[in-house]
Amino acid sequence: MHSDLKSLYEMTESLPPLPVIHKNGTIEVDMQAGESVSTGLMNISNVAVCDTEIAEDSMSPVHAHKEREWFILYEGDLIVVIYDSTTETHHKVVKTEYALDPGDYFFVEADVRHAVGSQNGAKLIAISVPRSEVFPSVRSG
After folding, report:
1. Which terminus of the chain has a smaller tally of CB atoms within 10 A, N or C?
2. From CA 42, how far away is CA 4, in angstroms rounded?
3. Where are the alpha helices (DSSP H) in the chain?
4. Which residues, listed in sequence order, are joined to residue 117 by a DSSP beta bridge?
5. 9 phi and psi, to 5 degrees?
6. Given phi > 0 = left and psi -120 to 50 = alpha, else beta, which region is 76?
7. Looking at the domain that runs over 20-129, which CATH code has it been given?
């Protein structure tokens, strides 16, 4: 292999996988277990909104971000787990677990470690303020 190609291969082989974007604009969301897809509804300077569907028996990885986030559940069940932010990041100490029913909403403050999932499947609107670069963008056409 040519040395430049070898260097390029070595630099790119450990990159995380790119999200799968379907022709209809949905994006497969990285999940610890199960599956989830999101469709961007709005992504402007100060707010991003997406419609998300979480498959049954699914859970996101524990994560935190600089944006505040709202989840508005309109179908199914949603589990939101808040983790103790005072422990080191490799310890996943559950602080509180919340179960949402259709019509419920939940707010996650910035920099709070959390995970979301569903036992029987969920459909929800997720709102990020300020907008997040990784939130699904609206695709036109």
Report:
1. C
2. 41
3. 3-12
4. 59, 79
5. -60, -45
6. left
7. 2.60.120.10
Exposure pattern of 3-17 as b/e (b: 16+ CB <10 Å)?
eeeeeeeeeeeeeee
Q: What 8-state DSSP symbol labels residue 80?
A: E
Relative to beta strand 94-100, strand 26-28 is unpaired
Average the pLDDT over each of 3-7, 43-47, 53-57, 107-111 and give the range with the smallest value: 3-7
Q: Where exactly are the structural domains of the chain?
A: 20-129
More confident residue, 10 or 118: 118
Residues in the chain: 141
Sequence letter at residue 108? V
Q: How many CB atoms lie within 10 A of CB 91?
A: 9
Measured from the Cβ of residue 69, the count of other Cβ atoms closer than 10 Å reads 21
